[in-house]
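FAQ
Q: What does a multi-component entry look like?
A: The components come first, one per line:
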Amino acid sequence: MKLKSNIATSENGFIFNPATGDSFSGNGMAAKLLEAMKSGKTEDDIKQDILSRYEVSESQLNRDWDNWMLQLKEANLLEI
Amino acid sequence: MPNKYADLCIAVTGLNANDNPGPGMAVIRSLKEYFGDGLRIIGLSYESLEPGIYLRDQVNKTYQVPYPTEGTAALAERLAYINRQEKLHLIIPNFDSELFNFIKIAPQLQQMGIATYLPTYQQLALRDKVNLKNFGTKNGFYVPADHKLYTTDDIKKAAAEFNFPMVIKGKFYEAYVVYTMDQALKAFHQLYAAWGVPVIAQQYIKGNEINIAALGDGNGNNISLVAMRKLYITDKGKAWAGVTIKDDKLTQLADNFARVSNWKGGYEMEVMSNADGHLYILEINPRFPAWVYLTAAAGQNQPAALAKIAMGETVEPYADYQAGKLFVRYSWDHIADIADFQQISAFGEL
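Then the predicted structure of the entire assembly, as tokens:
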């Protein structure tokens, strides 16, 4: 799942879809994830990075990741 | 600014910068931004309390002009008088209801040395609210179904087909989303009294409201187009805040319209993007919108481009604009002297 290439994001987690005018506010973690996704890192790379930095189990991370993807999909921010 | 525009004088209507604003002040702001403060702006007003009359840093002088119902002879005579005082280079009309007269007298204006850049009668008619559905059907555009309302019985027929909510629209201006028959009847009588018949009942489309401001070259192309998503909408349905957006589907829609209509001049498409992603054309206004300064802010100064083309300059179509430019409208209590009001009311000039 890739973030749409035209989506604009900022360091503080603000997201703007220039095709629809929709905008969203994310927290610090969202900002980090968006930055990683925009830089072209794979899902595995991002998850590995999170596991090495934070105290979180792999199963919890996978559940959170699925939820994150669902939110991005509902917000129409992912490539179809 | 090129020297050839040093003594430029442009007349503009639509100075009613109120809660349902005419485009005049936004057009003036755009023109001044491009041509500089040396540009002389002549306001053409219909009523004595149009705010632009009193904004003397924006409008150098204002002349009242006759209402459209007074006909073309009265308008031509008044503009000839104004031209003798001001030596106008260009007039940009900004009201739907006055366009018919301005198109008719455009050749006379040209003889006086005044340029215009207007659509033809045929172009004006094809996007008229009364004809829009047929135009859409013929050319493959999504347009909500409509009913022409001449009597209250017609409202019942429309309600039977569309159910509630539906939209009741005036012939020229104003629209109400109605949820009951009582509201529909009230809106019908109100719009009948204000604008005459037919009043139009339109199928309600749920979705995101998007407007496109554009400038057609009269040969099937757009010189400029800028799309805006409404972010804050007043109870009159007007955008009080909006943001520029860019989507190939919107560009294609406006380009298709320019191609099939050969539209000449400024126009605004009011579009509803529904959940399926279909773009329904709700209206096509035959002039710039009140938010047209946003086009200049986003990199495509449409009023300036129109002025240059009207005066014979070649203008290359714009290629791009900035998405994410936001406008937020505000109200402001401007202070003037009662003597100014007396002057424009009694003498028709200020």
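Q: Is there any commentary attached?
A: Sometimes. For this entry: The longest helix of chain B spans residues 96-111.
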